[in-house]
Amino acid sequence: MAACTRLPFRFPQYLLTNQKLVHTEAAVAVTKEAVYPPIKPSLTAKSKSARARQVEEQVERIKASPVLEKLRLLTRIQREKYVVYPQTFARNADKWYQHFTKTAYIPGLPEQLDPARLATTEEEKGSPLADLGIGNEAFEDIRSLVTRVILQEHWHLIKQRPFVYRRQELDEGPFLRNLVKSLTYHLAKYNPLLQHSSLDFSPQVGFYWRRGERIIPRGHRRGSLEPTRFQIDDQPLCQLRVTQQLPQVVPMEESHTADVPDVALSPSMLPLFKRQYTNTIFTGSKLPDPACYGHTQFHLVPDRYRRDRMARRQQSDQVEVFLRANAIASLFAWTAAQASYQGFWNHEDVSRGFVSQAVISDGRFFSFFCYQLNTLMLSTRTDAGNPRKNLLWGTESVRLYDGVEDERVLGLSDDAIRLLVRFLLRRPPEDPPVPA
Question: What is the pLDDT of residues 311-324, one digit of tens each?
Fold first, then answer.
């Protein structure tokens, strides 16, 4: 019987050198050739990886859907959200609204809309609307038109005393609507884009989006992260929609250096309140409408907004804040809804800037704003590393007239009329094609 041999504890290394294992090379070759499907988390498991897969597949499903289906999927899940009111009396609400919409405010109007910046020669200084084809005689016709509208509403008509807190609705509302209709009809010969426009009265405008996140404090989902949801429901006095998009004010890359206030507090501190109802993304018109691009909105301030009353309460610093907050919320909702109608959303950012304008008035004072939407990536997941910011240009309030006496309009301001005309004559560089 063979005797047992004892092997050393450390096997000699020379026995392992120059040993070619054929089955190992074959196994490596087989491994390289084999292609296995990736192992994905379960869709029904209660885990973070499963939730991440659910979100990823939902994003891909929305990307592959047409516009109508995409809007339905974006607004399908109805949860509690903060309702952002465009006309709010909360103190310093414009800073909060800038944070919610990632909007930077730039005082003054851009060069395309500011007559003082464009006037270079003596002829242009004498007629600031000469670059739009409007001379002194044409401007006098526009001035007389504005005078007739003011006299019609505040002198020739005999109106009863309005109800409490309905003065703006019964007196200034009809005046502003007639002014917009008359100017739009009169200026159509200078702007062919207005000939194929649509004018809406008291339209419903809404937009739903996510911005930031919070930790759920109580309930069966306590301790988990949840996105903070917002909804804007706006109803301007009237709005003008056109068939061609307004040109960009500045390239989108110039918004990278703009400053947006960062508010770390909860929106309930503003205060804002949560509600649960149907999510809406709506521009004020149906989808098949060819006039799907916004031009100018006109807003009427409520009766509670009175400059003399705010001055008596030592709140004069909130006069312009109210107007800026109204412009930020209204124009963001309108332009973002227009971009959503074109197929853009949180995970598919806009490829071009969407521009719209707004005029906010109480019948005497007019404020002018211009908004450029540069990004819709506002959620915590998509906003990381996104340098784009939305931009808002605005002016201080400009008085249109001082009063009416003996069939005469006192103190009619030419600057306010010129700004109104410039806003309504804004159009793309090339004329729109005339439909057959």
Answer: 999 999 999 999 99
Higher pLDDT, 64 or 434: 64
Token digits for 55? 């979100």
Helix or strand or coil: residue 357?
strand
For residue 416, give the 3-state DSSP assignment: helix
The answer to whether 373 touches 332, Cβ cutoff 8 Å, is: yes
pLDDT in tens, 324-367: 999 999 999 999 999 999 999 999 999 999 999 999 999 999 99
Tokens of 68: 């109508």
Q: What is the 3-state secondary structure (H, E, C) of 7-48?
A: CCCCCCHHHCCCCCCHHHHHHHHHHHHCCCCCCCCCCCCCCH
Both structure tokens of 283: 């521009």
Encoded tokens for 308: 């003399």
Residue from 361, 427, 371 nearest 400 by CA:
361
Structure confidence at residue 107 (pLDDT): 95
What is the bridge-based pairing of β-strands 274-275 and 81-84?
Answer: antiparallel
Instruction: Quickly list H helices, 9-164.
Output: 22-33, 48-63, 67-74, 93-101, 115-118, 122-126, 136-151
| Burial of residue 196, with CB atoms counted within 10 A of its CB: 0-12 exposed, 13-18 middle, 19 or more buried | middle
Distance CA 314, CA 49 (A): 55
